[in-house]
UniProtKB/TrEMBL annotation:
This is Semialdehyde dehydrogenase NAD-binding. It comes from Bacteroides coprosuis DSM 18011. PANTHER family: OXIDOREDUCTASE HTATIP2. It comes from the Bacteria. Residues 7-118 form the NAD(P)-binding domain. InterPro entries: NAD(P)-bd_dom (IPR016040), NAD(P)-bd_dom_sf (IPR036291). Coiled coil: none annotated.
Length: 214
C-alpha cells in the first residue's frame, strides 16, 4: 500500500508518518514537505515541494490513500488570508490532484467545530474545506473531527491549561466529547479508520477516535 501525506512535519503528521512506516502492509510513504525535516527511512520518499506550485508535482500524488494533516494558526500565518492559503487552498488543491490521479481513499484531519455557516473564521474555513472535498466525490472520504490536540512537550501555557481543565471535567463525566487527544492517538485512529470505515463519506468524532485506539 502506498500512502501520500501532506502536513507531515507537524505534530500529528510526523506521528502519522512514523506509524505508517512501521506498518508491514505499507510499502511506501510519500511525504510532500516544504523543507526536509523527517528522518530518513527505507520506505519514506520525502519530496521537497513548493505548495504554491503544487500542480508541478502532480505525478507524486499517486497511490492508494492520501492523508492531510496540514494546518497553521492565525498567529503563525500572520493574517487570515495567509492562514486560508495553508488550511484551505493547499489542502483542496492536493485533494483535487489526488482525485484526478485516481487515489481512492482520502483522509482529512479537520476540526470538531467545522461549519461552513459559522461566524467564526476558523470553523467556517474548515467547514468550507470539508464541503469542497466532499464535492470531489472520492470513492471513500474519511473526515476527522478531533477535540483539543495534545502535542508532546508543548511549550504553550494555554494549551497545557486547556488540556488540564478538559481532562479534569472528563474525569467527573462532563464534556466527554471534548476529551483532549494525544496526537499519537489521532494518528493511530487515522490509520485504523482505513480498515473500519467503508462508507463513501465517513465523519469520525471523538467517540469514534477513542474506539479506534482501544
Amino acid at each position: 500500500m502506498k500512502a501520500i501525506v501532506i502536513g507531515a512535519t507537524g505534530a500529528t503528521g510526523r506521528e502519522l508518518v512514523k506509524q505508517l512506516l512501521a506498518k508491514e502492509w505499507v510499502s511506501e510513504v510519500v511525504a510532500l514537505v516544504a523543507r526536509k525535516k523527517l528522518p530518513d527511512h527505507g520506505k519514506l520518499n520525502q519530496q521537497i515541494i513548493d505548495f504554491d506550485k503544487i500542480e508541478e508535482y502532480a505525478d507524486l500524488i499517486k497511490g492508494d490513500i492520501a492523508f492531510t494533516c496540514m494546518g497553521t494558526t492565525l498567529k503563525i500565518a500572520g493574517s487570515k488570508e495567509a492562514q486560508w492559503k495553508v488550511d484551505y487552498d493547499y489542502q483542496y488543491q492536493f485533494a483535487q490532484i489526488a482525485k484526478r490521479n485516481g487515489v481512492p481513499t482520502f483522509v482529512l484531519l479537520s476540526a470538531m467545530n467545522a461549519d461552513s455557516r459559522s461566524s467564526v473564521f476558523y470553523s467556517k474555513m474548515k467547514g468550507k474545506l470539508e464541503e469542497s472535498i466532499v464535492n470531489l466525490d472520492f470513492s471513500r472520504l474519511i473526515i476527522f473531527h478531533p477535540s483539543l490536540l495534545i502535542r508532546p512537550n508543548t511549550d504553550l501555557p494555554l494549551e497545557k491549561l486547556s488540556a488540564n481543565i478538559l481532562n479534569g471535567l472528563n474525569k467527573i463525566g462532563l464534556l466527554k466529547k471534548y476529551k483532549p487527544l494525544r496526537v499519537s492517538d489521532v494518528a493511530t485512529a487515522m490509520i485504523e479508520s482505513t480498515h473500519h470505515f467503508n462508507h463513501k463519506i465517513n465523519r469520525i468524532e471523538v467517540e469514534d477516535i477513542l474506539t479506534l485506539i482501544k
